[in-house]
Amino acid sequence: MNQVEQTCHSEKEGSVLLMTEILNFCRDLQSAVIASKGSQIRAKQSPYDGEIASSRGSATLRSSQ
Known about the structure:
By secondary structure, this protein is mostly helical. It contains 2 helices and no strands. The protein has one domain (about 5-65). It is about 95% helix and about 0% strand. Helix 1 (about 5-55) crosses helix 2 (about 55-65). The chain is rod-shaped, with a radius of gyration of 26 Å. The chain starts with a helix and ends with a helix.
C-alpha cells in the first residue's frame, strides 16, 4: 500500500468513526430531550392533578380562563 492509499484509507476510517460519534451524540441528545420533555409534562400535570383533587370547582374555573 503506497502513501496515498494509506492516507485515503485512514481518512475513510476517520470519517466513519466521526459519523458514529455524531450518530451517538444525536441519539444521546434525542433521549435527553425526550427525558426533559417527560419531566416537564409530569411537572405540568402534577399541580393540575392536585388542583382537581383539592377542589373540582376552582380547577374548572382556572382552566376556562
